[in-house]
Each structure stands twice: as C-alpha cells, then as structure tokens.
Write a structure and sequence with these properties.
Number of strands: 12
Largest sheet: 10 strands, antiparallel
Order of helices and strands: HHHHHHHHEEEEEEEEEEEHE
Helix content: 25-40%
Number of domains: 2
Shape: elongated
Number of helices: 9
Length: 381
C-alpha cells in the first residue's frame, strides 16, 4: 500500500488491535469466540484483494480512516467501501464528459445538484467519505437494514440491489486496513470482538446457540454435507447473514413415500425436514434443516443477519432436536460466446463462519468435527 494506507494501518495497529486484544486477554482468554476473533484480527482476509490496485486500496484505507475518525461502528465502514466499489470502483472519478451520469463525481458519485457539495468538495475523497457517513447515520435503523438497502437509502441509485455483490470484497478491504476487524462487533463504537448472538463487522452471526455434535464430511460421515448444532427444541434459528429466501419446503420420505414434516422424524426417514435456503451476496447459499414447523419466512423475502427464520426441531432424517446447517458456494465462470458455467461446492460451515468472525465449537473429539474429506463439488451447470 502507499502512504495513506500505511498511515491508517499504523493508527489501527496502535489503537484498535491492541485495545481489543487487551480487552479479551484476561478472563475471556479461553472463550472460543474471542480466541478466534483475536486470530482474525491478527491475520485478516487477503483472498479477495488481488483484483485491486494501490490506488483503490488507498481509497479504501481512507474511507476506513474517516469512519474511525467519526466514531462510526465497523459495519458502517463496510457499507461505505461497498458503496464506493459500486459507484466508482474505488476511484476518485472526475467528470467523464459525454459518458458522465448527470453531474456525478468522485468516489461515491455524489451530485452537486443534489446538495452533496461543490464539485471541488466532492472530488476531495476525505470530504466525500465524511458526507457519505453523515447521511448513512441519518438513515432510520440503518443497522437493521441489509447492506444494499442501507447504501441505497443514502445514494438513491437507479440500481438499488447492485451494492450487495461488493460486500465480500468490502469486508476484505476493511479487514486489511484495520487488522482483521471483520470479526469485531458490527454496531458498537467500542471496537470489541463480537459476542455470541451479535453480528460481526463482516455481517455474519451464529444461526443457533449450542455446540457442534457432528461435523462436515468427517472420517465417519463422509456424506454429511453440513454440521449439526445441538440445541433444545424450539430454540430460535437466525439467518447467518443478509440475503433473500430462495426455498422453503418440507423434505421427508420413508421407504419412498411422503412422511411429513409436522412430526418428529427418525434416522430411517430421508430428507431435511422443514428447511430454508437463503441466497447471500457473493454467490453463497445457507441451508437450515430439521425445523420444528413451517419456517417463519417466505420465498422472495429479504432477511437480515440475526433475523429469526424458524425454530429448532427434529423433522426429517433426525434422531433428536438440532440444526443441520449447510454452506454452498457457487463459482461463476464466464465462457465464450456469452455463456456462463456455475459450479456448486459445499464447504465446511465451521471454517467458513470462522473466517467471518463467527465460532461454533465442537463438543466431542476433533474427529467428530474434522472435515477430513474436504469440500465437495456437487456439479456444474
């Protein structure tokens, strides 16, 4: 990174990282959620950053620095960076002549005619970022809104859903600048690690309390494509992150015949019982199985991280109340002429969530949770 990015990193290393690690290094030293948070703070996530050049990274760093200076919570930094990625590609764009969108300028494509300031002010990245944050904080309940809705409430874009796709990269940018802060609590100003039930700055949360009883594709269960979180019957199940509900259904058969999902299942029953699939930014799907009754959400409904979507039950192929959670990642590859191939891969939810600051602990031996068989590609289309 160039000088601006280094300045922010030095500042964050001296204030945020040290203060957070110090805050959790005593009585909470063995809490798995906080141990993982410290690890994330130390490491960060570099996987999404290769597409950005130094200019873009410097602008991302400046946006975070401004957010820190205004005492905004970490989730606001992610929203701001995602917005700039959509509006300008993290570049301070001057007027583009005949190709310009009205009188839009700068990192956030703000318009003098809409009261954002003079052209000279808007083309000052620090001014532009400050103006964005101030308007975001004026949006009612912005913390409860999906990223793309919060961003559009500020920008009033002709493409209100376009911000969502930039969330994974925005999280990576913020993490690089602020020492892996994706694991911090999203909506507090005291810069601490997220606790059980809170949303992380990366926008994820734990879908249910309780330990993992059975892991993803372990040595003894190579065909188990998710994790089983043990929780009492009726425990609330929450969306792991923002997204859109794409499937709500009952899936239970016995000996090839419909079994039903409003009764407890059994190991001899096939299927996920009552379950929900949610599609998230970054071509990620999460699936929540064995629910007690028909889920609380409907297909097409937009949900936010931490929103209740159902209750823990034992429908379908189940020996007792628990949440079976699956994570599926879709990789889209462009092909000529104009076609695309989508590859579906199921991955270990424990590792996937940990990279986003969320920890679920294993209740048994490492063998009960160790994903020795690794990710599984389900196919391409």
């Amino acid at each position: 990174m160039a000088a601006a990015g280094c300045l922010v990193l030095c500042c964050c290393a001296g204030t945020f990282v040290v203060s957070v690690i110090g805050a959790v290094s005593d009585s909470s030293a063995h809490d798995p959620q906080l141990v993982a948070c410290r690890a994330a703070l130390a490491a960060g996530d570099q996987t999404e950053l290769a597409t950005l050049d130094d200019e873009q990274r410097d602008h991302g760093a400046l946006i975070v620095e401004v957010g820190v200076g205004l005492a905004t919570p970490p989730r606001a930094w992610v929203i701001a960076v995602a917005t700039a990625l959509q509006e300008s590609g993290l570049r301070n764009l001057p007027h583009q002549g005949a190709d310009n969108d009205h009188d839009s300028l700068g990192l956030f494509q703000q318009r003098p005619s809409q009261g954002w300031g003079t052209p000279e002010q808007i083309l000052d990245p620090r001014y532009a970022a400050t103006a964005f944050y101030r308007r975001l904080l004026q949006v009612e309940d912005w913390q409860r809104l999906p990223l793309t809705v919060a961003a559009n409430a500020v920008q009033r874009s002709a493409h209100p859903d376009a911000y969502a796709k930039h969330e994974p990269l925005a999280v990576a940018v913020v993490s690089e600048v602020a020492g892996g802060i994706a694991a911090a609590a999203a909506f507090t100003e005291d810069l601490r690690c997220a606790e059980l039930g809170e949303v992380t700055a990366a926008g994820w949360t734990r879908p249910a309390p309780g330990p993992v009883w059975s892991g993803f594709r372990t040595a003894s269960r190579p065909d188990h494509l998710g994790i089983d979180i043990g929780a009492p019957r009726g425990t609330e199940i929450r969306a792991a992150t923002d997204g859109v509900v794409t499937l709500v259904t009952c899936n239970a058969t016995l000996n090839g015949q419909p079994y039903g999902c409003d009764v407890d299942g059994a190991p001899a029953v096939a299927g996920c019982g009552w379950y929900v699939t949610i599609t998230h930014p970054g071509n990620v799907l999460t699936r929540y199985c064995h629910q007690l009754r028909r889920p609380d959400v409907a297909v097409g409904e937009r949900v936010v991280a931490g929103q209740r979507i159902g209750l823990v039950g034992s429908s379908g192929s189940s020996s007792g109340p628990h949440l079976h959670l699956e994570v599926e990642v879709h990789t889209v590859q462009q092909e000529d002429p104009g076609g695309v191939t989508v590859t579906r891969t199921v991955t270990d939810p424990i590792g996937f969530l940990a990279a986003r600051g969320v920890v679920v602990e294993c209740t048994g031996s490492p063998a009960d949770c160790d994903p020795v068989h690794g990710d599984l590609t389900l196919g391409s289309r």
